[in-house]
Amino acid sequence: MTRDPAAAPAAVAPDPEPAPGAETLAGAVVSPPLAMAALRGLCPRCGAPTLFHGLLAFAPRCRACGLDLTQFNVGDGPAAFLTLILGAVVVILAIWLELAVGPPLWVHMLIWIPVTAAGVIGSLRLAKAAMLAAEYRNAAREGRIRDAA
Fold first, then answer.
1. Model pTM?
2. With the CA atoms of 109, 84, 51 and 143 taken in that order, what torsion angle do they form, in degrees rounded to the nearest 10?
3. DSSP labels for 99-147?
4. Residue 125 predicted with pLDDT over 50
5. Which of 14, 61, 84, 109 is most deeply packed, by most CB within 10 A?
6. At what angle do helices 105-137 and 77-100 cross, to 10 degrees?
């Protein structure tokens, strides 16, 4: 059976050029490790540092290889998970500080509001990048039910 070349999907892009410093293996770009992609905001396909547009928002696509980042659904999982973890850590530290030193309320506010804000922004950026890189690596897509017929 002969395959019609015009029937090939137009969405398939050629292999991207490796980003500066990206690892290659026999001419093919090797995806960056999950931890490095998360820490540095690297594109999961080419390894270029183009994942974010701003502080927490994903770029619509990678400027280096053209990977459409809008197709990934990170959702609110990282935010809910991090709220619980970071909230527990901040409360434990605030209680410890209160019992050990007993500072006035304004000292607690001066310490814990910036610590909480920085912790949320930093960890949310890291978690969102890790989730997107994991979705790309595992080719995760929405669940679909097959017809029985």
1. 0.65
2. -160
3. HHT---HHHHHHHHHHHHHHHHHHHHHHHHHHHHHHHHHTT-----PPP
4. yes
5. 61
6. 150
